[in-house]
Amino acid sequence: MLPPELPPLPALTRAECDVVDAYLAVVDLVARINPARVEDTYSALRAAQALPARARELREALDVMHARGESELHAGTLGRALRVLDGERRTGRVALPPAATP
């Protein structure tokens, strides 16, 4: 049996695609650094070292949008794109895990 088909991505400009991709890359790295979830310092260190480069990519994508006169972020459209790309699960890894019951 095939897995369910994902909904199509909404139409985005190239810069919006770059923003979404860079944002999710930053989120994934922050999740790998999250001290409430990480199990070893080396993987957290590697993620922390990669974070500035990914943050720079996000800044550059936003800078391109701003330079082109794209002054608004369309939260609804970008939110749909993030959901299609598993953004809810990925951003959830940044938050604290549920407290363990004693």
How would you describe this structure to a colleague?
- The protein has 4 helices and no strands.
- It is mainly alpha-helical.
- The chain starts with 13 loop residues before the first helix and ends in a 10-residue tail after the last helix.
- It has helices at 14-33, 41-67, 75-84, 87-92.
- It has one domain.
- The model has no long low-confidence stretch (mean pLDDT 92).
- The protein is globular, with a radius of gyration of 16 Å.
- The chain is 62% helix and 0% strand.
Low-confidence stretches: none
Shape: globular
Estimate what percentage of residues fall within beta strands.
Answer: under 5%
Question: Number of DSSP helices?
Answer: 4
Helix content class: 55-70%
H and E order: HHHH
SSE layout:
Blueprint: H1 14-33, H2 41-67, H3 75-84, H4 87-92
Helix pairs in contact: 1-2
Quick gist of this model?
The protein contains four helices and no strands. It has 102 residues and is mostly helical.
Which features does this protein show?
single chain; 102 residues; mainly alpha; 4 helices; 62% helix; 0% strand
